[in-house]
Design brief:
The chain is α+β, with helices and mostly antiparallel strands. The protein contains 20 helices and eleven strands. Among the domains are: about 1-85, 3-Layer(aba) Sandwich (DNA Methylphosphotriester Repair Domain), CATH 3.40.10.10; about 240-460, Endonuclease III, domain 1 (Orthogonal Bundle). It has helices at about 5-15, 55-60, 85-105, 110-115, 120-130, 135-140, 140-145, 165-175, 225-235, 245-250, 260-265, 275-285, 290-305, 325, 340-355, 365-370, 380-390, 400-405, 415-425, 430-445, and strands at about 25, 30-35, 50, 65, 155-160, 185, 190-195, 200-210, 215-220, 305, 320. The chain has a five-stranded antiparallel sheet.
Length: about 475
C-alpha cells in the first residue's frame, strides 16, 4: 500500500487516533518505530519513513517503541506487509511476547513457551537486542512487586481493534445462536465457550474492555504453548483485523445501506471458533427457527459431547462433539428428518477423513465448492459456512428470505433472487457485511433470516423461515 509522505507526517503531527493500526512511522535517527498516537515529540519530516503495518516497520529493521507499544495496536488486514508469511509470523510472535511480558505476571519461561521461543534465554536475547533491556526491566514495577502467576491460574490478554466496533450487536447475534452447554453470553455481554485444541480442553471468555478499543480475553487452558494459537483464533473469530473504514466507505455508496451503516457503525461478521461446529449448526438450522435449531444443537451436545467440569459455571458443561465422535451415530434419534441426519453424517465423515476441510480456501468459489460437494448442503448453507467458517468477506446467501424481505419495495414486493444477485454485485467485495447489516436491521421486528437450499434457487423465495 502506497503511503503519501506529507499526509502521513501530518497525521503524526495531529496524533490522529483514527489511523492507529493503519499507519506506523520508523525514525531513522533512533531506529525506533511508533504509532501515530505516540506521546513522544514528532521527529523531523526528513527523518521519518512510513509503513502500513507494524510487521512492515519491523521487517525494515526498526524496533518497537516502548512508549506507544506497537504490539498493542490493532492488527489490521495487511495489504502490503513487506515480509514473507514466515517472517511475519515470527514478528507477530515477538510482539505477543512483549505484550505478555508487559501486561501479565506470567513467568518468563512460560512466556517463551507460549510464543514459540526455545527457552527463556532465547526470549531474553531477542528482547535485549530489540529493546536494549533485560526481561525484568520490560515488566512494569507494579507487576514485578506482585510476583509471578502461572498460566495454570488463567491468562488475561487484550486484543486491539480499529474502531468503531459494534460489540453489542455481535454479542446479541452470538447469544441467539449459543449452543447450550458449549457457549453462552452473560448479562454483561461477555461471550463464554468451551474450547478444544489437540485434545486438550479449556474455556474462553471474550468481552469489551471498558471504553478502550480492545477486547479482553480470559483463557483457561492447560497448555501454555497453545496461547498464540488461541489469541490468533480469537482475533480471527471476532473479526479484529478488519479495517471498518474500507467497508463503510464502499457500502455507503448504496442509499439503502447508508442509514444502516450510520445506525450500526463497525458491525463485524462473527466467525466460528471451529468450522465443523459451525457447519453442523448451519445444517441443524435448515427450515426451522433459531430457537428450535439451538435446542437441537443442545440435544446433540448433551448426547455426544464430552463432559467438561468447570468450577462455578454450570453453563459450560461440554465440548462440542468431534467429527470422529459423530461418525456412525444414528442422529435421527435426536428428532430431525432423515435427510438432515444423513447430511450431518456425511459432513462428519468428510471432516474426519480430511482434517483440512475447514482450512481457509484460496477463494470464495473454492470454499463454496468444497461445501456443495457434500450431500444436503446447497447454495445457502455453503455461502453461510463460507461467511462464518471460512471468513469470506464476500460470501452472500442470495436466496435468503431475510435479505429478500429487507429489500422489498414500499408495497412489500420482494425482488427476485436474480434481481438481488445483480443488485448485490455493487457491494462486492464486502457482501457478507451488507448481509449482516440487513439481517441486524430486521432482527428486532422480523423473524430470523431463512434458508432452504436443497431446492432450485428460483423457488427459495417461498421457503419457510429457517435459521443458522
Amino acid at each position: 500500500m502506497a503511503l503519501n509522505h506529507d499526509t502521513s507526517y501530518q497525521l503524526f503531527l495531529n496524533h490522529a487516533a483514527r489511523v492507529d493500526g493503519r499507519l506506523f512511522a520508523g525514525v531513522r535517527t533512533t531506529g525506533i518505530y511508533c504509532r501515530p498516537i505516540c506521546s513522544a515529540r514528532v521527529p523531523k519530516r526528513e527523518n521519518m519513513t512510513f509503513f502500513p503495518t507494524a510487521v512492515a516497520a519491523h521487517s525494515a529493521g526498526f524496533r518497537p517503541c516502548l512508549r506507544c507499544r506497537p504490539e498493542t495496536a490493532p492488527r489490521l488486514t495487511p495489504w502490503d506487509i513487506g515480509a514473507t508469511p514466515i517472517a511475519a509470523a515470527k514478528i507477530e510472535r515477538v510482539l505477543l511476547a512483549k505484550q505478555l511480558i508487559t501486561d501479565t505476571r506470567l513467568p518468563f519461561a512460560e512466556i517463551a513457551t507460549a510464543t514459540g521461543f526455545e527457552g527463556e534465554h532465547s526470549l531474553a536475547a531477542t528482547m535485549q537486542s530489540l529493546y536494549g533491556r533485560p526481561l525484568s526491566a520490560l515488566r512494569p514495577l507494579r507487576l514485578r512487586n506482585l510476583g509471578t502467576q502461572s498460566a495454570a491460574a488463567g491468562v488475561v490478554l487484550t486484543l486491539a481493534y480499529a474502531p468503531p466496533y459494534d460489540w453489542a450487536a455481535l454479542a446479541k447475534f452470538l447469544a441467539a445462536r449459543a449452543i447450550p452447554g458449549v457457549e453462552w453470553v452473560d448479562d454483561g455481554g461477555r461471550y463464554h465457550r468451551t474450547i478444544v485444541l489437540d485434545g486438550a480442553r479449556g474455556t474462553l471468555t471474550v468481552g469489551k474492555d471498558g471504553e478502550h478499543p480492545r477486547l479482553r480475553i480470559e483463557i483457561d487452558f492447560p497448555r501454555i504453548e497453545a496461547l498464540t494459537t488461541i489469541a490468533n483464533r480469537v482475533r480471527w473469530m471476532f473479526d479484529l483485523a478488519l479495517d471498518p473504514t474500507l467497508v463503510a466507505d464502499h457500502l455507503a455508496r448504496d442509499s439503502r445501506l447508508q442509514p444502516l451503516l450510520a445506525t450500526r457503525p463497525g458491525l463485524r461478521v462473527p466467525r466460528a471458533w471451529d468450522g465443523f461446529e459451525l457447519a453442523v449448526r448451519a445444517i441443524l438450522g435448515q427450515q426451522i427457527t433459531v430457537g428450535a435449531a439451538t435446542k437441537l444443537a443442545g440435544k446433540l451436545v448433551a448426547a455426544h459431547g464430552q463432559p467438561l467440569t468447570v468450577a462455578n459455571n454450570d453453563k459450560l458443561r461440554y465440548t462440542f462433539p468431534t467429527p470422529q465422535q459423530l461418525v456412525g451415530i444414528d442422529l435421527c434419534a435426536l428428532g430431525m428428518p432423515g435427510a438432515r441426519a444423513a447430511a450431518l453424517a456425511a459432513l462428519a465423515a468428510a471432516t474426519a477423513n480430511d482434517g483440512h476441510l475447514f482450512d481457509q480456501k484460496p477463494s470464495l468459489d473454492a470454499a463454496v465448492i468444497a461445501m456443495r460437494a457434500l450431500p444436503g448442503i446447497g447454495e445457502w448453507t455453503a455461502q453461510y459456512i463460507a461467511m462464518r467458517a471460512y471468513g469470506e468477506p464476500d460470501a452472500f446467501p442470495t436466496g435468503d428470505i431475510g435479505l429478500l424481505r429487507a429489500l422489498a419495495d414500499d408495497d412489500g414486493h420482494r425482488p427476485s433472487v436474480r434481481a438481488l444477485q445483480a443488485y448485490a454485485d455493487a457491494w462486492r467485495p464486502w457482501r457478507a457485511y451488507a448481509a449482516l447489516h440487513l439481517w441486524t436491521a430486521g432482527a428486532a421486528t422480523q423473524a430470523p433470516a431463512g434458508l432452504v437450499d436443497t431446492r432450485p434457487l428460483g423457488t427459495i423465495e417461498n421457503a419457510a423461515i429457517a435459521s443458522a
